[in-house]
Request: fold
Amino acid sequence: MYGTVARMRLKPGAEAELARLSREDTPKIAGIVFEYVYRLDANPEEVMLVVGFESKEAYQANANSPEQAARYERYRALMVADPEWNDGDIVYAHPE
Reply:
């Protein structure tokens, strides 16, 4: 599996819209296995997005698609600044 961990600082009150967009968009993404969003205790307006794909190829196909570019623009409008992206191989997960 392959994926990303992104740190995002949301605009005040944007968390509900982020959740709505995620529920609407995620099932449409080919190759996605999971998506989790964590609200950080240290700053409730900061979240960590954790996404896993079947493969690096599936991840890259999504990342380079016009559909993902459009989705990103909707998500980006909810953020104070660009997210910090950290892509890589998912080495293991428990439970599987």
The two ends are 12 Å apart (CA to CA). The longest helix spans residues 15-25.
